[in-house]
């Protein structure tokens, strides 16, 4: 039995007339009658009661039609699912991200993606840049949103966003009332709250370089693993922190933010994926991510 036999049967069952069914199928009537007889022979049942005046479904034919409808509907769904999978419209994808992407980049990427591809199951994992690299190579995540620059011959990288570092200080800090950008060296005697280097090497080294370029080494009094924790400690008067500009999207009382004067260091965020990645899901995510960041930047 072939799929065409089922479609021939449905046409005759719905028309209850071989000539009209043949016209509907764009074929001659004799071959259609022959195909239906072959189907009946293969099934071992009579599907139609034929007379010179009319064609009627037998009880077996009515039962068979009901189940054929289900088969054809399931087949259409299966074909549609395969086509959508090829287009990257359904399936599962796992995205890694650094804590620095939480307050700006991640919402800008995920919201339009979920809107355009509602049938894709997307999971997100917060991982350091180093851990994301390893997870990409191990196939544990499909895409990384991490700090750049990174070099790895097995991965593709594309910077999608850059933002300056700013200084976060308690609202009652002597410099909080100062308007405009502030020189970093004005904080050379301050206590600094930092993310440890093993949680984000690039992020950590960039902050150290900002301080060194200003002529001092930061006095690190507290190390925390989350940016929002560092901001909370700043608000509590435990010190100051150099943080990415997007952290201002996190509303915390008791904090004052100021731009840095003469600082050219920026936090670069990149997408990362394997060189041998063939999944349409990954490539549609990357394409939409580029468009979303460009549109919303």
Automatic annotation (TrEMBL):
Pfam families reported in the protein's UniProt record: HTH_1, LysR_substrate
Domain HTH lysR-type, first and last residues per copy: 1-58
Task: Give UniProt keywords alphabetically.
Answer: DNA-binding, Transcription, Transcription regulation
Q: State what protein this is by name.
A: LysR family transcriptional regulator
- Output the InterPro entries linked to this UniProt entry: LysR_HTH_N (IPR000847), LysR_subst-bd (IPR005119), WH-like_DNA-bd_sf (IPR036388), WH_DNA-bd_sf (IPR036390)
What family is it from?
Belongs to the LysR transcriptional regulatory family.
Is the keyword DNA-binding in the record? yes
Would I find DNA-binding among this entry's keywords?
yes
Q: Entry's PANTHER family?
A: HCA OPERON TRANSCRIPTIONAL ACTIVATOR HCAR, TRANSCRIPTIONAL DUAL REGULATOR HCAR-RELATED
Recorded hits in PROSITE patterns, A to Z, give: HTH_LYSR
Q: Which domain of life is it from?
A: Bacteria
């Amino acid at each position: 039995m072939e799929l065409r036999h089922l479609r021939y049967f449905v046409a005759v069952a719905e028309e209850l007339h071989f000539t009209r069914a043949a016209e509907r199928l764009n074929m001659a009537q004799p071959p259609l009658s022959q195909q239906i007889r072959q189907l009946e022979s293969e099934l071992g049942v009579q599907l139609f009661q034929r007379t010179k005046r009319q064609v009627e479904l037998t009880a077996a034919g009515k039962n068979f039609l009901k189940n054929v409808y289900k088969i054809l509907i399931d087949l259409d769904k299966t074909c549609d699912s395969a086509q959508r999978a090829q287009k990257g419209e359904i399936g599962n994808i796992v995205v890694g991200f650094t804590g620095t992407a939480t307050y700006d980049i991640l919402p800008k990427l995920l919201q339009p993606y979920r809107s355009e591809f509602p049938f894709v199951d997307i999971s997100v994992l917060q991982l350091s840049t180093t851990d994301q690299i390893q997870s990409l190579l191990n196939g544990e995540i499909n895409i990384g949103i991490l700090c750049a620059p990174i070099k790895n011959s097995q991965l593709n990288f594309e910077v999608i966003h850059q933002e300056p570092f700013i200084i976060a200080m308690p609202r009652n800090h002597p410099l909080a009332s100062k308007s405009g950008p502030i020189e970093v060296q004005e904080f050379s005697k301050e206590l600094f709250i930092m993310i440890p280097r093993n949680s984000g090497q690039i992020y950590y080294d960039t902050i150290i370089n900002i301080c060194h370029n200003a002529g001092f080494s930061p006095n690190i009094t507290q190390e925390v693993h989350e940016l929002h924790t560092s901001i909370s400690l700043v608000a509590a008067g435990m010190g100051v922190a150099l943080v990415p500009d997007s952290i201002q999207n996190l509303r915390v009382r008791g904090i004052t933010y100021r731009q840095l004067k003469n600082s050219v260091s920026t936090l670069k965020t990149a997408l990362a994926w394997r060189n041998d990645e063939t999944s349409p899901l990954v490539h549609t995510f990357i394409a939409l991510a580029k468009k979303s960041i460009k549109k919303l930047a």
